[in-house]
Description:
The model has no long low-confidence stretch (mean pLDDT about 90). The chain contains eight helices and four strands. Strand 1 (about 40-45) and strand 2 form a beta hairpin. With about 200 residues, it is mainly α. The strands form two sheets. It has a two-stranded antiparallel ribbon. It has a two-stranded parallel ribbon with strand order 3-4. The longest helix has about 30 residues, at about 1-35. Helix 1 (about 1-35) runs antiparallel to helix 2. It is globular and about 45 Å long. The chain has one domain (about 1-195).
Amino acid sequence: MLKRAFDIICSFLGLIILTPLLILISIAIVITSGLPVFFIQKRVGKNNKDFGLFKFRTMKNGADKKGLLTVGGRDPRITKVGYYLRNYKLDELPQLLNVFFGTMSLVGPRPEVRKYVDLYNEEQKKVLVVKPGITDFASLEYFSENELLAKSTQPEYTYIHQIMPAKLELNKKYISNNNVFVDIKIIFKTLKKIMC
Length: 196
């Protein structure tokens, strides 16, 4: 209950305070690459249920059909504005709407696409007992995940067999130590990472 109240208050205040920035980003996307402004991707949430995750569109239209993983900061599918949005994690800001409406939390395991969730073993599926979040321990540890994948000769293999299992272990660590004070600590660490 306390966590949900924290999510509602923070997401509401965040959306109000950030409205001018959200409008500027929307205008920049429209001017440089047209509509739509948002990209809504199906992700897997609490209790293994699908939901629509909001992001600012950072790729050319239809680019997601050419692969789910983004490899490196200069992936040719990414628009010029999209590169900067991704670099500073600004593309994630619309997920405050997900938090406000209750499909996500500010802090929790990052929601995965169905393709990769279907590869989870029974132990790994335990991360689906809580709401997914905008940030968590795994987001901090793998802040530059795209660059790691860019160094791999087989990015998807590396993601499935190395990065994904490691992230899921960190997700389980969060679930076993889940409270508002831990959430606040993770949020501040995330902000510090973005600004550094």
